[in-house]
Amino acid sequence: MVFMNFQDFIETTLVPVASKIGSNRYLIALRDGFTFSMPFLIVGSFILLLVNLPFTDSQTLLYQQWYVDLMAKYKGNLVQPFYVSMGIMSIFVVFGIGYNLSNHYKLSGITGGFLSLYTFLILAGQSDWIPYGGDAAKWGIQPNSWFPVIDA
């Protein structure tokens, strides 16, 4: 009986609100933009898992010396697909969002995708690092520490 009351509450109050939110064209473009980047996310995650298998701790039963030697020699090369896919994930997502929103308005998807990508690259801040012992006081940061600073 309590379950039926809860189910009725969900169906009468939350489902209409959720369907209204779910039909918003901007949220649909966000959802589809992230879906656009899913293959890159899967490939990068799979590579990261293969490179970081739990075979390197010599105190465990899973320790494999051949894996430690292999990773010492080739880890830098094997992890490159991860850096390529995850390092520029925001570019894939931004292009996908612009592409899907343009298609929703029945405009050219490629043009909308590149326009949103161009806008993102213009607005993205340049990342600087305050060097160790640098002039951190002007940023309000404790001296003698590394800290990322985004400037325009």
Helix/strand order, N-terminal first? HHHHHHHEE
Distance between the termini: 59 Å
Tell me the Rg in angstroms: 24 Å
The helix content is 55-70%
Count of helices?
7
Question: Largest beta sheet, briefly?
Answer: 2 strands, antiparallel
Strand order of the largest sheet: 1-2
Mean pLDDT across all amino acids: 82
Strand element count: 2
Shape: extended
Beta content: 5-15%
SS class: mainly alpha
Q: What does this 3D model show about the protein?
A:
The structure is a single chain. This protein is mostly helical and 152 residues long. The chain has a domain at 12-117. It is built from 7 helices and 2 strands. It has helices at residues 2-22, 25-36, 38-51, 65-78, 80-87, 89-104, 109-123; strands at 126-130, 147-151. It has a two-stranded antiparallel sheet with strand order 1-2. The longest helix has 21 residues, at 2-22. It is extended. The chain starts with a helix and ends with a strand. The chain crosses the membrane at residues 34-55, 76-99, 105-124.
What's a quick, concise take on this entry?
66% of the residues lie in helices and 7% in strands. It is mainly alpha-helical. It has a domain at 12-117.
List keywords for this structure.
single chain, two-stranded antiparallel sheet, mainly alpha, 7% strand, 66% helix, 152 residues
